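Cast an eye over this sequence plus tokens and walk me through the fold:

***
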Amino acid sequence: MQHIEKVRDIRPNHTLCFLTRGNDVLMLKRVKQPHCGLWNGVGGKIETGESPLASCLREVSEETGFCLTTARFGGLLSWQQEDRTCGSIYLYTAPAPTNQPSASSEGILKWRPKEWVFSSSEVVQNIHIFGPPVLSHAHPKEYYFEYRQQTLTNFKVRPLPEWVNPVINVLQI
């Protein structure tokens, strides 16, 4: 792919959060595109004037009923497809409250063991790569993926772009 560095300049307009409880991760089996029918974390679009963290907390509340006060910035997920479509998402993790999640209009919520999340063919395929370091609280990185005909063909793990300020992403609400 010729324009790999263009992806590094794209500011994410979505967040994705993985809620944990012990060795389990709350996963959402999506009923909408993208990734309809696959399991993923919860998240969505950053609204105008909203910080990434505020968006993450709002999306978690809307999709699970959990009212979190903070989440840990885990890095960036970025991608490029052969037609040069590209994008990026802020990644977060957070411990889940002890109560059960509410029903979600976005899909089915279910607690799944980390081992399943990191290996199942029913999960969005790039989670197998970025999930283990993000959920083990590794230092935030950029997880870059290339796709051809919706199939993952290449990935790179690299330092965050200079414009990312993890402290602001973690503390700003």
Observations:
- Confidence is low (pLDDT under 50) at residues 167-173.
- The domain at 4-171 is CATH 3.90.79.10 (Nucleoside Triphosphate Pyrophosphohydrolase).
